[in-house]
Each structure stands twice: as structure tokens, then as C-alpha cells.
Amino acid sequence: MFRGFEVWGLIVKFLLKLGGVLLVALVLGLGSAWWLINAGLGGALQNGAWVTDPNIGSEQAGPYSRAAVARAGLLALNKSETIYFTAFVDDAGQPLSTACTYKLVGQPLATRWWSITVYGADHYLIPNSANQFSQAMNTVTRDDQNGFTIFVSPDGSQENGIPTGFSGSSSDTHQGAAFSLTLRLYNPEEATYSNLGGIALPTLTLEGCQ
After folding, report:
1. Under 8 Å between Cβ of 123 and 73
2. From first to last of its 210 residues, what are the pLDDT tens digits of the chain?
3. Residues sharing a CB contact under 8 Å with residue 172, sequence separation 6 or more, in sequence order
4. Is 135 exposed, middle or buried (0-12, 13-18, 19+ CB in 10 A)?
5. pTM above the 0.85 mark?
6. Is 159 helix (H, G, I), strand (E, B) or coil?
7. DSSP states of 40-86 as a string?
């Protein structure tokens, strides 16, 4: 009788160990899926500070890319209509912070229309008193060479500015919050599709922080 209890105890221990292994595998699997979905850039291609997933909006998009698009709701148009680039860091590789000022310098882009929009870490527009969330091809002031300079800063008060909404109040974190920039190229020229990693995109440099 006692021998039977001993065998049963060993079986229970084995099942518990097996269950633990399966649980760990499940957690790791779900964790990796969550990370890829939140990053949304499993097949990322780098161009300066900007990254893009060439498969987003195409039939080749994998399940993680599709889930990321569905979750964020930012990259919904077909690849034939729009190419999306996102910057989470500046040209030096430092994460973007709402407490800092950044300068974007760009030249004419080979596309019918473009826009640059600021998003919070939650993928939503960042509330600000000016209700200014982006700059676009038809809103920026240009220089003599048809280039443009955009400033992303806490109050967005500079020419071609976009505010991040950081005020330094007690409700803000001392170092600001993470944010991202999304560059949309609408109906880009054919040469752009084949050179996503080499086309000239706006530079993104840190000017200073509060």
C-alpha cells in the first residue's frame, strides 16, 4: 500500500515538473509574441534613425506584423499606397524623450505627399494646448533649396514645430516620457520601394533637454 502511495507521489511530482516546463514555455512564447507585436518590426529595415518593415501592408506580412498593425492602428494603408517609417531614437541612438528638443532636417522626398507625426508610447497622439500633432508637405516652411527643418520640442514653439506636451509639472516624469515619430510617404515613386534603406530621409538630432 505504501509502495503504491510512493509511486503515485513520484507520478504527481513528474506531472508538476512537466506542467512547470510547459508553463514556462507558454509564458516565453506569449512574451516573445507580445514583444514582437508591440515592436511591430520583426522584419525591420534601418535607415538612419528610421525603421520600417517592408512587409507591412503587403501580402507577405506575417501574423506578428498584422497583429502589430491591428493593435497600434497606425499603419493601416496598403503598401502600394503608403510607406511608413518610425523613429524611436535619434541619430545618436538615444531614445526620444518628451523633455527634449529635436531638429529634423530634410530634403524634398520622392513622394506625392508626406507627413511626420508625434505619438506617445501608447501609440496615441500626445495632447497639447496647441492641438498640433504633425507637420506635412503642405504645412512646412521651406528654405531656398526646397528643404525643410522641423523642430519637435516640449512646447513646439519653433517654426515648423511639433509639441510633445512635456511641461515639467508634477504629473510629468522628471526625464520626460518616451515617444516616437512616424513618417508617412503617400504614393512614393517606384524607385523608393526598391531602396528603402538608402533613400535620403530627414536627419534627427538632439538639440537639448529641459
Report:
1. yes
2. 444 445 445 444 544 444 544 443 333 333 433 333 344 445 688 999 999 988 765 555 444 444 444 444 455 555 568 899 999 999 999 999 999 999 999 999 999 999 999 999 998 999 998 999 999 999 999 999 999 999 999 999 999 999 999 987 655 556 799 999 999 999 999 888 889 999 999 999 999 998
3. 98, 99, 166
4. buried
5. no
6. coil
7. --TT-EEETTEEE-TTTTSTT--HHHHHHHHHH-S--S-TTTEEEEE
